[in-house]
Amino acid sequence: MHEKRVARTYFVELMTALLVYTVLLFAAIRFGRPMPDGWLRTLVLVTPMAGFGLMIRTIVRHLARIDEYQRIRLLENIAVAAAITLAATFTYGFMETAGFEKLSMFSVWIMMGASMAAVTLYRRVADR
């Protein structure tokens, strides 16, 4: 019962943070891109990070709510996903020096998310 309540709370908080991030992202793109260069434009373009901050807060709160076993599993998954992301981005950095196209830093976030999903799925299947 407690685990389901914690999971539901996490889901609601995370989806709320993602919604804030998405709204701020679209607003920043809509209003920030056409602005003239300067500190105000920069400030407008980084406002989605407020939603990202809410996501970080949600994850920290979730870690505090879950039991020790779940916390260790989650942190292990994050560590492995971070290592995979590090290896992939570091490898691609060498490939860029060989002439491959430069990638946006946003691709690191996508790689981290994909790595986290893959590690979590793999461990879930392997534990059966």
Description:
- 84% of the residues lie in helices and 0% in strands.
- It has helices at residues 2-32, 39-45, 48-65, 68-97, 106-126.
- Helix 1 runs antiparallel to helix 3 (48-65).
- The radius of gyration is 18 Å and the shape is flat.
Average pLDDT score? 94
Helix content: over 70%
The total domain count is 2
SSE sequence, one letter per element: HHHHH
- Rounded to an integer in angstroms, the radius of gyration calculated over CA atoms is 18 Å
Largest sheet: none
Structural class: mainly alpha
Strand percentage: under 5%
> How many strand segments?
0
Number of helices: 5
- The parts where pLDDT drops under 50 for at least 5 residues are none
Q: Which overall shape is indicated by the principal axes computed on the Cα atoms?
A: flat
Distance between the termini: 22 Å
Topology:
Blueprint: H1 2-32, H2 39-45, H3 48-65, H4 68-97, H5 106-126
Helix pairs in contact: 1-2, 1-3, 4-5
